[in-house]
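The instructor's notes for this session suggest beginning with a concrete chain rather than abstract definitions. Hand out the sequence below and ask the class to guess, before any prediction is shown, which regions might be ordered.
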Amino acid sequence: MKIANAPCSWGVLEFDLQGKSPDYIQVLDEMHEIGYRGTELGDLGFMPTDPEQLRDELPARELTLLGAFVPVALADSEAHAAGETSALQHARLLAASSDDAPFIVLSDDNGTIPQRTQNTGRINTEHGLTQEQLDTFVEGVHRIAQTVRDETGLRTVFHHHCAGYIETPTEVDMLMQHTDPNLVGLCFDTGHYRFGGGEPLDIFEQHAERIWHVHFKDCQPEIAARSRKDDWDYFQSVGKGVFCELGQGDVDFPSFIAELQSRNYDGWIVVEQDVLPGMGSPYQSAKRNFQYLNSIIAK
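After discussion, reveal the predicted structure:
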């Protein structure tokens, strides 16, 4: 299976946070040195936005560009136009820079809704979307995915995410049921699903055909339990290491990989170990994550 990583594993996040992250040259060099074969774009502007330069930088390191994460406040209809513009900007860069049919990885504008950010990992129904908000949310997802496909030919996957409106298994189910399966796929993130209260293997029971893209992230159960007990917000939980190195949490990656293989999944596995800027030792963690995945895939 093809294994990639993403800049978020080096603390390059879409949030406006304190701390310093490495530049794209260091991140891509380290991905290549470890043995990863692909990457996602990272926050727009982190990597070159000139397609010709990006086409030079990635093949020089034997890396394929797989997708771009695009956060949009989808529950707010007034944010849809700007979100569409942003998604198209990302999609045009991807289409001009990669021949591998990359994805727009669409998500809520996570971390901007105080109630959801404060209660991540312990969301209940009172924190959810109203029916009107859900209708608006789905309308935005469809609008952006349709425009991206019409203008660039790229497909869109939705990324459920802690600290956003689509976090829990019930919310993932709800969005999948309300969106067009021919237009919108699922970017399934094992760690966000686990921290959001789900068992990752359960996703295959209802939504196997919607999984077009996969993020491999682990979730450390003791830290997740402490987050719930002490009412940590999303950023505190990440800073404490809730998304640990692969194999150090309670996501059953061997079984998940076996399910992907049995269903003839031919996409990428993208490692994402979300860390805050300047946190931990990203190179060493990325190396151990790569070694761990290769050890279980080979069995």
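Then share the key points. The chain has twelve helices and nine strands. Strands lie at 2-5, 38-39, 64-65, 67-72, 103-108, 155-159, 184-189, 211-216, 268-271.
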